[in-house]
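S.,

Sequence below, as promised.
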Amino acid sequence: MQVRNKSLFIAIFLGFVCLSTIMLIQYIWIKKTIVVQQTETKIHIKKDSLNNVIFAQKVHFSLEKVLNEISNLSEDKSDKYGAIQQVEDNIFLVYYNGSIEPYFLANTLKKEFYKMQIKNDFQFSLYNCFNDSAHHSFLYQYTFDSQFINTHIPIKQPPLKNIKKNESHYFTVYFPTYITEKFATEEDLSSPWLFLIVVSLLILVYLTYSVIIIERQKKLADIKTDFINNMTHELKTPIATIGLSSTTLMNDDFSQDSDRLKKYAGIIFRENKRLESQVERVLNVAKMSKNSTPLNKTPFDLHEFLLESQETFEINIEESGGTLHLQLEASQHQILADIVHMKNIIYNLIDNAIKYQSEDRNLELTIRTYNTKKKLIIEISDNGIGISKENLKYIFDKFYRVPTGDIHNVKGFGLGLYYVRTIVNQHDGTVTIKSEKDKGTMFIITFPLK
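The prediction came back faster than expected:
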C-alpha cells in the first residue's frame, strides 16, 4: 500500500513538474514574441505616420494649385488661408468662392494629382452652401498607363464630421483606396497571454482529471484486493471444515458409532450449505448489476412482518448481548413490494448492526416507522462502532467494506448494503445513512405509498 501511494505521489509530482515546465517555456516564448511585435509595431507606426504626412502634403499642395486656378477663373482675390482642411486621413475639404463646373474640377484635379505623383483612386463632391445640395462624381481610377479614368461607378463617401459651414461653397476629395494600416494595440498583444492561460487551464484540468482517475482506480484496486481476501477467507473456512470432516469419516470406523457418523455428516451438510450460500450471494449480485433482478410485487404489511419476526430478531440480537426496540408509529404501513426481498433488506440491516456492534457497550437496536407526505419511513439505528465520513460515501458501493487492514474479524463480501440499495431503488424508494464514528449508525429507508 505504501509503495502504491508513493508511486501515485511521484506520478502527481512529475505531472506538475511537466505542467510547470510547459508553462515556463510558453511564458518565455510569448514574452519574446510580444517584445518583437512591439518593436515591429513601433517601426511600422513611425513609417506609416511619415507616409501619411507625405501623402497629406502632396494632396494639400495639389489642392492649393486647384484652388488658385478656381480663384483665377472667378477673379477671387480673397485670402485663401485655412481654405484647405484635412477632415480624415483620406478626405480633404476645400472652401472656394464663385461657381465651378464638375468637368473643369475633375480635369484640374487629375492634372495636379498627376504632377504630384498621387496614384490613388479618388472621388470629389461639390456642395452648395445655400441649399446644402451636393453633386457626387463617379470614381476616378488610376491606371497603369499613368492616367485617371472615369469608371462611372458611384460610391458613397463617408459622412463629414465637425464641419463648420460658412458663406463659401466647398468641395471634398475622397481617396477610398487610401487606408492607413492598423497595428496591434496593447489589448491585441494580450491575446498570447490569454492563449497561455487557456492552454495552462486545459492542461491543469487534464492533469487533475488524470489524478482523480488514478485515485479512483487505486480505490477500486483496494476494494478488489479486500474482496478477494474476504472471499478467500469465507470460502476456505467451510472447505477446510468439509475436508477435515471427510478425512475423519474416511479414516475412522463408524460402524458401531452412528451418532458420531451423523455428527460429521451434519457438519459436512451445513458447511456445504454455507458454501453454496456464499456462492449464491455473489451470483445474485452479478445478476443485479445487469438489472435482471425479478420482482414479484404484492401487498406487504411492514408492521405485520416486524411483529411476526420480532422474536427471531430478539434471539439473534440477545445472543450478542443486545436489545431490540420496536417503535411502530406509522398509520399507513402497507406497500406494494416483493416480500422476499423486503424481508432480506430488514435482515441485512439488522445483521449489519450485530456485526459492527461496539465492544465497549451492549448493542441497542431500534426499528422505527412513521409516515410523512404519502411516504413510509423506516429507521434502523444502533449504537455500534459507526462509520467515518471518508468511508461513508462509498458504503453502498458493490464489494466495498470499511478498510480494516489485514484483520478479518467481520464476515462478509461487502455486498449487503449494495443489495439493500439496489432493491430499495427498484421499489422506487430511497435509502440514506447517518453515522458518526464510535457513536452509531442510522439507516433511513423511504418508500412511496400508492
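The chain is about 50% helix and 20% strand.

Coffee later?
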